[in-house]
Design a protein that fits this description.
Elements: H1 16-33, H2 43-67, E1 72-80, H3 85-100, E2 105-112, E3 119-126, H4 129-137, H5 139-149, E4 153-162
Helix pairs in contact: 1-2, 3-5
Length: 164
């Protein structure tokens, strides 16, 4: 995936191990969730319930895999200066794939508010504080965030959390 791909063609990059575990879990669980119904009338309901239960289990497995071993969660909120929101969004689109590919990054999401296009929120899960420090020392952080994006912001807030 190149940084120049349109954002609609990008998928969140998941650790290969997480994807394989989720796929294996789904294949193992599918027969349990979709066993033969006792009556034909209950088949559709049983199918819907089975699929919902399987998706919940897969999501829980994914969350467990991400949080395995703890980590440092960083939540950041940005608000772009008036008339700078599109420039900030463009910078973040170029930055995001590089941040997601960093060693020590378990999850890196950036979202834009649907109510106010100038507001952005980041959810960043790092393996530890050293991974976060490496992220901030990376060339792409220095170039895109410190060099290009921060001067375009009216507000920036960050909080750090330890996973329970």
């Amino acid at each position: 995936m190149s940084p120049s791909e349109p954002s609609s063609n990008r998928m969140m990059q998941l650790p290969r191990r997480s994807v394989l575990l989720a796929a294996a879990g789904a294949a193992t669980a599918l027969p349990t969730y979709l066993s033969a119904p006792s009556t034909a009338a209950g088949a559709e309901q049983q199918h819907n319930n089975g699929m919902q239960n399987m998706m919940q289990d897969m999501q829980q497995g994914f969350v467990n895999e991400l949080s395995n071993g703890g980590g440092l969660l960083v939540v950041a909120q940005w608000e772009a200066k008036a008339a700078e929101a599109e420039r900030v969004a463009d910078i973040l689109r170029r930055f995001l794939p590089r941040a997601q590919a960093e060693p020590g990054v378990k999850l890196f999401l950036i979202a834009r508010s649907t109510a106010n296009a100038a507001q952005f929120i980041f959810y960043e899960l790092f393996a530890d504080e050293a991974a976060f420090a490496a992220h901030q020392a990376s060339e792409h952080f220095k170039t895109f965030i410190a060099g290009e994006a921060l001067p375009l912001l009216a507000r920036r807030e960050r909080s750090q959390y330890s996973l329970l």
